[in-house]
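Fold sample X.
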Amino acid sequence: MRTGILLSIAAVAAQSAQQNKTTDVFNQTQGVSLGSPPLSVVTQFSFENADLIIPFYMNTTDGYFVFRPDIPPNASWVYEGVYTSYTDDPLFGEDRFFMNGFELQNFTFQTLDENASPLVKVGLGLTHQPNFIDISLIQSLKDSGYIKSRSFSLFHNTSASEYEADQVLFGALDHGKYDGPMTKVKGYSNTTNGFVNTVPSILVDGIAGYNFSLTSQSIAIISDNKWSFPLDYYASLSDYFMARYNYDTNEAVPCSILNSTEYISFYFSGAEYRILEGRFFRNVEENNTTFCAFAVGSELDDSFRLHRELFKNHYLVVDYDNEEIGIAQAATNPKPQTIEEMSTGIPSATPAKYFSDSNLRYSTVSRNHTALYITQTAHPTYAMYTGERLGLSATESFYFTSTSSSESQDIKTAKPKESTELGNNGSGDKSSSSKADGNVQKTSGIAFIACGLGALMMF
């Protein structure tokens, strides 16, 4: 490997810990490393990509840098800048590539030039290409026998630095990373981000805030750095800010909104999740002036993107094979590590109220006897809470229990029943849960070196 001139012999020796194919789901070492001996490099996790993206040079986690080796002749060209390795031999000559300690084989990678950010981007999505053409990272790990299901879990440590905040396990979850029970909602493994990748996708029942609510069932993807709503969601949220604060979301607004303790609720499969309303705005600097602007876009194609900011204070688990997404309140204090392997679903997760009835059904409806449009329904609609949401409880989450047997019920104001599920203090008892098959291993805490997911919006 050609290393940067600042990479000292001592730095190489310091990172020469053995990493090989004996690594299993219970002993994952966070982040990407490459070479012989392996050097840990700065890593970024991306929901919207499926492959490994390797720049011309990469920063190491100890402050040095390393060049990307030449592309080997045994790498198969997929399209411009993208290659697939179909061999169990080292990827780059004598160099080897490791993800969380797993030595990678038969996987696709994308190369970037010297102008790219000096970090490796790890895709957490799947590819729609046939496996023999474009092999996503998660697919590669399963094909190699490292993990039993195409799944991952993500803990965002809000008190850690940017490059240590995101901690990912593949094919497993750590029960020590969340407080209280975990609720699972319906995920979808056939939804793309408008390109070629399957990304974590979730059924949204509706949205609600003070004196407003909208029921409109639609699938949304979890985005790296973007809020983008269908026109009905966008209009409802814009109307809310106009009615409540006289804010025109097409213009600059006072930055005091960033400090608001009022929140907006999203509903997934009957479960409610809250986010402070200030997170929908961002700081803008222009001509030496700072102001705030609405950070939510609307798309003509009605694409639906939820910024991962929504789950910043949650432990997030995605199982593509079983179409499940688990959400729990992130642990607020260090807890013993308890890793459990995933194989037939998310272990110890309580299904949301409509989890088993969240398959979208499509129907075509006539509008004024001329135009046709498609509506989506997955389960009965229900009343959403439209009262005030003020104070420290704005970051708490609740499990919604009041529902209607009608699939076209008008929305009514109803306060949800508070539950220990997904509470902010993690002190409640766990409710009855569905138990997926999985092996559990309890250990003491381990050091994490994974890089945070960069390029987030400023809120």
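Fold sample Y, listed below.
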Amino acid sequence: MRIPLDYYRILGLPILATAEQLKQAKSERLLQAPRREFSNNAVESRARLLNQAYDMLSDPETRRTYDARFLANSQETDASVDPTGEHSGLEIDIDESRFLGALLLLQELGEYEWVLKLGRPYLTSGNATSLQSGAFGDPQEALGDIVLTLALACLELGREEWQQARYDNASEALETGQELLLREGLFAGVRSEIQSDLYKLRPYRILAMLADNDATSPRRDRGKQLLQEMLDERGGIDGNGNDQSGLGVEDFLRFVQQLRDYLTVDEQQTLFEAEARRPSGVATYLAVYALLAKGFSRSEPALVRRAKAMLTRLGGRQDVYLEQSVCALLLGQTEEASKALERSQEYEPLSFIRSNSKGAPDLLPGLCLYTERWFREEVFPHFRDLMDQSITLRSYFADEQVQAYLEELPAEPDINAAGKWINQPAPRTRIQERPSKPEPEGRSGGWAAPAVAAGTALAISGKVAKDKRPPTGKLTNSPIAEPIAEPAPVLEGPADYWVESNPQAEAPAMPPLTASSNGKPPTNVALEPTPRRRKSPPPEEAEEGPKWFWLLGIGLVTLAGFLLIRMLKPQPNKLATAPQIAPVSMDGLNITLDKPVLPLPEEIAGGIQGDLTPETAKQVLELWLTAKRGAMGSSYTADQLTQVLTGSKLAEWQRYSAEAKTEGWYKDYKHAIKVDKVEVNPGDPKKASVTATVEEFEQFYTGGNLSDTRQDNLSLTYGFVKQDNQWKIESW
């Protein structure tokens, strides 16, 4: 039978390889044993093919004949385009008994499509004759080898698609391999490995599905279903259950923040109100924002009232007076809005509000300006169907349904009365991560958000605009200021989530409010019932009723003056000097963080030239260890390996780097080197062996967390080769 391989590729060598290189490549390839699950027959079949390739190329006469065919075929391939897109290189004849070895080699060389194309027919009833006849050895062993090779090809193909951000294709490939193993009832370990990848791929699939342009597509429904499965497995947004995704509590909060931009306001209201009943403080706060966004954009003050009730239940633990003030404003409760502002400790927004309320008897004019801009820049951009909305207070209060509701709104307890029976809320408290089980080692899917130590602050929301999305998280250190009764996260107030915007010439820059992540409330959220209509309001409401009309007039006059001054006065371009944060990208599903970018590994200079002395040997080894740190570190810069490694070692470490990136782990190294002996080959001055003592300190990270450390003192002999007048390492 014929297989789509050539002898040079089987050995991993170029056509100009020397006889010595052929011999060394064969030895190294034979030492690289396949996975232990393969049968001895498959391993021996692979070894026979490697020997066949070596025998063909080590004989000068047969090699000349083969090289002529090889070069002629290469020229034909370059001159024509294969219309099928299939492999069009050389093929070699092999005995049918070596088919299992050929499949192994194709899988090792990354020809996964060819593995599937050649191997699948042997699993169908009409093509199983060769298996049953024993042409490949024991039929049961041969079946297991073929199934294992196909499953591994599906696994690697899925990872390749994953790296290319083709998440549906990746899932399909992984599920194909898993179904194959389940059907045959073989290799539970490999099946578990594939399932682990599927779990870690799930967050990426959810984001891709929710981002579908068709808001009514079944694909989006499937994405919401997968999201709900993750939430149930975790026990809620801020739960500690294990969904096998590899995401810690804070990473998952960042994931939730990112997916919000692809959910409508109705979808977010449904999702977060349900999650708030677990209970969940984060979900409660996000439900408040969904209710406010929907209530303001659709002129439904009843939803604003529900949001206000939920905030009241959170107010005993943190400063949410600013949000309560906005709710009271939208409900026409101007005195209550003013009282809430007086209790707030948020310096920057209060400064903006006061600056824009000069000359007024209270802070309502500034609060009107603040509220409109807050909704426009910090609330609406987090909803798929509201990103382009720009609702004004004028249009909201002019709506007849809003007017009717506000006129009939019953008296409610003062939201500020909570301070009379509770301690002063802890200023600027933050989400405190509950103790969680250590994440298991393994593939994390390359999620871009590194884990943060417990106790650090987390802001689940950042300013997000349509074309420019600043950070989704803000990380600072702040201990919990006040102990609480239950071991739950503590909700963070709004001020920490504000992002600086363009300043106005006549007033300080208004820091827009963003949807913040919050901790767990003490009780389940109870939604307020819609009040029954009454013929006349109580005395307190009789005073409130006309004032919201006055509020509207004052607010509009102030807004007009504010805009006029803004147009007439030049504005400094403060954004030009602001630090730029990388935007969220759906192509790579990169979750950005408001933290310093990870340092890149030090730059590697060109290869070491000249004669090989102990000094130059040490330079080559230092070059290799620097490249190793880059390839296996958090930046995965494997391209540096080509400057110092060659042959099978280069391919091997490039593969290691790619696997580390796919699996979401990396290593940090520190080395000390001492060259003990340098011996140049007297028969070939372009080859040498270098014996060195290497002290290596290794730190292993999974999901951004330090998982293990190790220290080794190694005595190694390196094989050096001079290529293009530069010394490189080919073995050790």
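Sample Y note: Strands lie at 2-3, 92-93, 665-680, 687-702, 705-723, 726-731.
Also: Residues 630 and 636 are 6 Å apart (CA to CA).
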